[in-house]
Design goal:
Layout: H1 16-49, H2 54-74, H3 85-99, H4 106-124, H5 129-134
Length: 136
């Protein structure tokens, strides 16, 4: 089962190079998944432009862009199917509150992610029922 990484890590000074090497390897291994999500977000933006203003489309895709950063940097998820209800709801909202300084409300986060997952299901055929349940 996919996990969200939280908390602090203590790395001895003589192991720091090993840590950076492992971190780089993990980033390289996850690069295709990050690129897939980034491409889907770009398509999502174009889809939103057909219905909403540029400002609204930018706001929603900006939230999704930070969600991608969260998923790729703070979880061990490697496909859209592995994203859980808790990740899109509680974990992401807590991460947002700690890491992002802006006036976005939790409801706005939910709306943007719900629109993204509905877009994935209707336009791309990528259905994640667990994530959708967390966004209702």
């Amino acid at each position: 089962m996919a996990k969200v990484y939280t908390g602090k890590v203590s790395i001895p000074g003589d192991k720091i190079e090993d840590y950076f090497k492992l971190l780089k390897e993990a980033e390289e291994r996850r690069a295709p998944f990050r690129q897939q999500l980034t491409d889907l977000n770009a398509e999502f933006y174009e889809h939103l432009l057909s219905k909403f203003s540029e400002k609204t489309a930018g706001k929603h895709t900006g939230i999704v862009g930070l969600f991608i950063d969260f998923i790729c940097g703070y979880t061990d998820v490697e496909s859209v199917d592995e994203i859980t209800r808790g990740m899109v709801n509680t974990a992401f909202k807590q991460w947002w509150k700690r890491k992002v300084w802006d006036s976005t409300t939790p409801d706005q986060l939910t709306v943007a992610l719900r629109k993204f997952f509905v877009f994935l299901a209707t336009e791309k055929g990528i259905v994640n029922e667990k994530a959708m349940k967390g966004l209702q």
